[in-house]
Amino acid sequence: MIADSPLVKAFWEHGRLDECPVIDMHGHMGPWPAIYFPRPEPEQMLVSMDQAGVRRLVFSSHEALFSAATGNDYTARVVRRWPDRFSGLMVINGNYMDIVERDMARFDAMRDAFIGLKFLAAYHNVALDDPRYDKVWAFAAERKLLVTCHTWGHGNMNGPAQVRAVAERFPEVRLSMAHSCYGMWEEAAQLARDFPHVYCDLTAVFECRGALELFCERGISRRMLFGTDLPWFSPLQGIGSVLSADITDDDRRNILHRNAESLLAPLLAAGR
Amino acid sequence: MEFWDCNSCFGLPSKPSQSPATCETVDDLTAQLDRAGIVRSISWHVAQHDVAPTIGNRMLAEAIRGKDQLLGCWTVLPPQTGEMPVDQLLADMKSHRIVALRAFPVAHRYLLNGATMGPLLDEMVARRIPLLYSTRRLPASYSGQQAWQDLYNLMAECPELTLIVVDHGSWGCDRYFRPLLDLYERVFVDTSMYYIDGGIEDVVARYGPGRIVYGSGLPERYPGGMMMAIGHAQIDDEAKAAIAGGTLRQLIEEVTL
Ligand SMILES: [Zn+2]
């Protein structure tokens, strides 16, 4: 037993609960060069999702992150095969603005596959607030899209300062800070407090004991999103971390599904 | 299923980790272990790394005295300088319930090889004392790749050593550790940061359940994360029990001091 609430006991006993589903707001797919993944393919990821009671995964494929020309099509193909289980994020790589223009031009015709955009600023070496991205942010704001941004505590590509700069300019965007500005927890919590449209994505945050408690203490329980980087991290590890954090069952439900349900409802409706 | 933990520590690190939660005292740690339902934990004091092994080892021994839930893990130094004579170390381990050893060769500036540590390594093999090695607790200037190379060199020199590699991850390290599992029977890996999806099932399928041991990673990690991953892995109940505690318990019982 890892703690002693009714929800924790039930999860620990059964591994998954129909009455408390899990929605994973941050995943990828396919192989990646630096790590061996036992379960990188969509069929394998579905096995892991079923094992842990994950109803839906919002993802950007590794191919999309690192092969701008082809990867978003891969993502769309997978979503269209399993539309009840996967939702896509279209990757924006500012090093190839001609491809970004192409993808924006076809985005509206692909709303069934994509609910938003994904920035990987530090990896692409184009800052979140780089002027090249102005038109992309405006595009997302016009459509009230989810924009998931890789964020990390330090550096000048995707830290709290860059998030603040774009959050101030584009309040219509639903901005998810992937990894919650890892290591700069107070700054991440402050961003979520200052902007009602900014969310703390907990991918990799689960490895830092105390971060979930800190966020809940700062009053942002309704702004925290479950994420795993699947096929990187086991959803069970993420769930077990939520269960062993010193927070309430209400907080746990907010993290595991409620916040994501509210966020996704209009985005999924737009794709139907 | 009983959880025996190979990887916990306490004490305030000189440089805080990214995890906001700490365990300043041994009682803070045992409160967390109790909350998680962990039966036994092999623990160490961060002063063994940050201050000095001799000072930290003494602090650990005093802290765990009378606490049956905790077993100790001391930090070693080369015997040639007289700071830590092997005979004395082994005698003191016995009287203080120390069942495993840690080495931080990069931070403490020596080479973890036969030339330096031969007399101690021979005793560790004969007495089946596990060496716990963290691939994460390294200076920023030292690459993970080099740390793994160090372990490959060590095992080539000392193939019967009991080695438990801890804190590997969170970027999956299977390409580093699996060759060691193939080559040496007494190499094990802990779970504290082995988050990779499907990793437990995949390693069990190839190596059986006897090569992975539960590590809580306390105080930096949430102990329940990998408890869930083990408890609900797609492996049989015997395999779960071995990973949760059975294998580590056996390794501890094999130690002769
Ligand atoms: Zn990611």
How would you explain this protein's 3D organization?
The complex is a heterodimer of chains A (272) and B (257). Chain A has an eight-stranded parallel beta sheet, sandwiched between helices. The longest helix of chain A has 22 residues, at 249-270. Chain A is built from twelve helices and eight strands. Chain A is 44% helix and 17% strand. By secondary structure, chain A is of the alpha/beta class. The termini of chain A are far apart. In chain A, 56% of the residues are buried. Chain A has a single domain, classed as Metal-dependent hydrolases (TIM Barrel). Chain B has one domain: TIM Barrel, CATH 3.20.20. Chain B starts with a strand and ends with a helix. Chain B has an eight-stranded parallel beta sheet. The longest helix of chain B has 18 residues, at 237-254. Chain B is globular and about 50 Å long. Chain B is an alpha/beta fold and 257 residues long. Bound molecules: zinc ion. Zinc ion (ZN) is lined by residues 26, 28, 178, 203, 229 of chain A.
What is the topology?
The complex is a heterodimer of chains A (272) and B (257).
Chain A: H1 6-14, E1 22-27, H2 42-52, E2 54-59, H3 62-66, H4 71-81, E3 86-92, H5 97-107, E4 114-119, H6 121-124, H7 134-142, E5 146-152, H8 160-169, E6 174-182, H9 185-194, E7 198-201, H10 211-217, E8 224-225, H11 235-244, H12 249-270
Parallel strand pairs in A: 1-2, 2-3, 3-4, 4-5, 5-6, 6-7, 7-8
Chain B: E1 3-10, H1 26-36, E2 38-45, H2 47-50, H3 53-64, E3 70-75, H4 86-95, E4 98-102, H5 105-108, H6 114-127, E5 131-134, H7 144-157, E6 163-166, H8 174-183, E7 187-190, H9 199-207, E8 212-213, H10 223-231, H11 237-254
The structure holds zinc ion.
Residues 26, 28, 178, 203, 229 of chain A line the site of zinc ion.
